[in-house]
């Protein structure tokens, strides 16, 4: 990673900050993309070799934001320092049953999680280094349809198939696209209800630092698909082969999921008795 020029979206989020910190310590030169300028400056200033890194204030959910990123990336290429790795890390999710979701929140989630990375990848093919790599950050929910995350799972599943197809399109070149799927991670994306549900279901919740280190390993190995965490990676495979078996296991958890999904956001979550549904 030393002196590798990396463009990272969603840089000021939980996983993004951990990735930026770990990559900077490895000697990478970062182009940090986020929506909030003050947060970007604060992140850049705390990184190793902060003077080497750049920031782009842009909302990649908009055409204007993506154009700002693309223009900067093209400019770097013109200077003889092209982007060598694009990490599409920006993402949003909302824990709610589909019937409870507002239409605009569904559209926003699709725009950030699926439309934006697809379009950034398309334009990256114009400015990415000849040996460049695209890493799309997905989710375990791409491989397991889980109640409360129907729309989120759809976006990450779509991103998985898109990455698979793009990587096959790049066959015969020195470029590649890979997909990395974390499981539940301790970040601000999870509200109190989701956090309480994961605790009650005894779902593993990883630290952003752990996830960041495994993302970097997957990038270094150029492994196409990496599912993080055990037993979640096993459940993904089981869901492919025996979906009814996984569905039966989730059905046993439905009462707990219902309780947390039906708790209004912003209200204290009072957990029911803890059950082991393994």
UniProtKB/TrEMBL annotation:
The entry's protein name is SDR family oxidoreductase
Matching NCBIfam families, A to Z?
Answer: PRK09072.1
Per UniProt, the keywords (alphabetical) are: Oxidoreductase
Q: Does the keyword Hydrolase apply?
A: no
- PANTHER family membership: DEHYDROGENASE/REDUCTASE SDR FAMILY MEMBER 7B, DEHYDROGENASE_REDUCTASE SDR FAMILY MEMBER 7B
Q: Which Pfam families match?
A: adh_short
Q: Which organism is it from?
A: Salinivibrio costicola (Vibrio costicola)
Q: Which family does it belong to?
A: Belongs to the short-chain dehydrogenases/reductases (SDR) family.
Checking SUPFAM superfamilies in the record gives: NAD(P)-binding Rossmann-fold domains
């Amino acid at each position: 990673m030393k002196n590798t020029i990396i463009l990272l979206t969603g840089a000021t989020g939980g996983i993004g900050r951990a990735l930026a910190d770990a990559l900077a310590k490895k000697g990478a030169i970062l182009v940090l993309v986020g929506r909030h300028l003050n947060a970007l400056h604060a992140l850049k200033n705390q990184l190793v070799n902060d003077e080497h890194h750049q920031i782009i204030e842009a909302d990649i959910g908009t055409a204007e934001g993506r154009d700002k990123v693309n223009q900067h990336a093209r400019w770097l290429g013109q200077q003889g320092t092209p982007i060598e790795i694009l990490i599409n890390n920006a993402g949003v999710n909302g824990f709610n049953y589909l019937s409870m979701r507002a239409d605009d929140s569904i559209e926003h989630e699709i725009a950030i999680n699926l439309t934006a990375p697809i379009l950034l990848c398309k334009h990256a093919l114009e400015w990415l280094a000849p040996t460049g790599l695209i890493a799309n950050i997905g989710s375990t929910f791409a491989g397991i349809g889980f109640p409360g995350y129907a729309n989120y799972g759809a976006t990450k599943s779509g991103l998985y198939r898109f990455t698979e197809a793009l990587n096959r399109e790049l066959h015969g070149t020195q470029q590649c696209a890979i997909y990395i799927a974390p499981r539940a991670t301790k970040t601000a994306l999870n509200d109190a209800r989701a956090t309480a549900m994961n605790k009650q279901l005894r779902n593993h919740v990883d630290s952003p630092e752990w996830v960041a280190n495994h993302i970097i390993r997957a990038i270094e190995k150029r492994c196409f698909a990496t599912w993080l965490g055990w037993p979640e990676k096993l459940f993904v495979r089981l869901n492919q082969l025996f979906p009814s078996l996984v569905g039966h296991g989730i059905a046993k958890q439905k009462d707990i999921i219902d309780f947390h999904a039906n708790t209004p956001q912003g209200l204290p979550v009072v957990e029911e008795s803890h059950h082991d549904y393994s």
